[in-house]
Amino acid sequence: MSDAPRILALAGSLRAGSYNRRVLAVAADGARAAGADVTGIDLRDFPLPVYDADLESASGLSAAALALKERFRAAEGLLIASPEYNAAISGTLKNVLDWVSRPAPGEKPLACFKGKVAALCSASTGALGGIRGLASVRVVLGNLGVVLLPDQVALPKAAEAFDADGNVADPARRKSLMELGAALARATRALRSPS
Ligand SMILES: Cc1cc2nc3c(=O)[nH]c(=O)nc-3n(C[C@H](O)[C@H](O)[C@H](O)COP(=O)(O)O)c2cc1C
């Protein structure tokens, strides 16, 4: 089996033209170039209702929630691009983290998160690039036992930041995103528990 660090990449937006999905793709390329095995998922493939404890009590975890949990469990590192909604984490991403944090029967608490390493990026149509939203993503993931890299990349003015092919137009910003992915690959390998 390959010893490449296993990284799960996801963007906290369901929007077809999501800018966060685009910056995620660049950072994921950086992680791959640094030797990581990156699995990208699209949250539109895992439809989840807004978390409701009564629903969980009545029906347990849905097939989509269990499938998402499996992706998280299998990963050693998390690469997350999060939109900023009202200066905080997007409802979509928070809802996903809430569902994934619920234990499956017999599962250890926080099995999908504890000891994993994460790197964060964002894109926003605003001037701050979504950086305020990343602060709340850090709070949520830190509380779940995830080790967060201090580096992060926020792409401002996203509506004007991509070229006609959908690539990040500014080479410096593109390099920062690639380096973020590479740093996550290195940190995931370095912090791996000895087997
Ligand atoms: C409900 C809502 C709240 C938003 N709040 C902020 C905000 O606080 N700061 C910001 O920079 N952008 C904000 N935006 C703009 C988003 O950053 C922008 O729509 C972005 O493109 C969303 O990410 P996506 O392209 O990946 O879907 C908000 C958008 C929505 C729909």
CATH topology, which one? Answer: Rossmann fold
- Reading off the top of the CATH hierarchy, the class is best stated as Alpha Beta
What fraction, in percent, of the residue positions are helical? Answer: 40-55%
Overall pLDDT score: 97
| CATH-defined superfamily | Flavodoxin domain
Judging by the overall fold, what is the CATH architecture? 3-Layer(aba) Sandwich
End-to-end C-alpha gap: 13 Å
Beta content comes to 15-25%
Low-confidence stretches: none
Q: How many E strands?
A: 7
The best one-word shape is: globular
Radius of gyration: 16 Å
Secondary structure layout:
Layout: E1 6-11, H1 19-33, E2 37-40, H2 53-59, H3 63-74, E3 77-81, E4 84-85, E5 88-89, H4 91-101, E6 117-123, H5 131-143, E7 147-155, H6 171-190
Parallel strand pairs: 1-2, 1-3, 3-6, 6-7
Antiparallel strand pairs: 4-5
Helix pairs in contact: 1-6, 3-4
Salient structural properties:
195 residues; alpha/beta; Rossmann fold; two-stranded antiparallel sheet; 6 helices; globular; binds flavin mononucleotide
Question: Can you give a write-up of this model?
Answer:
With 195 residues, this protein is α/β, with parallel strands linked by helices. It has one domain (6-190): Flavodoxin domain (Rossmann fold), CATH 3.40.50. It is built from six helices and seven strands; from the N terminus they run βαβααβββαβαβα. Strands 2-1-3-6-7 form a five-stranded parallel beta sheet, with helices on both faces. Strands 4-5 form a two-stranded antiparallel ribbon. α3 (63-74) crosses α4 (91-101). The chain is globular.
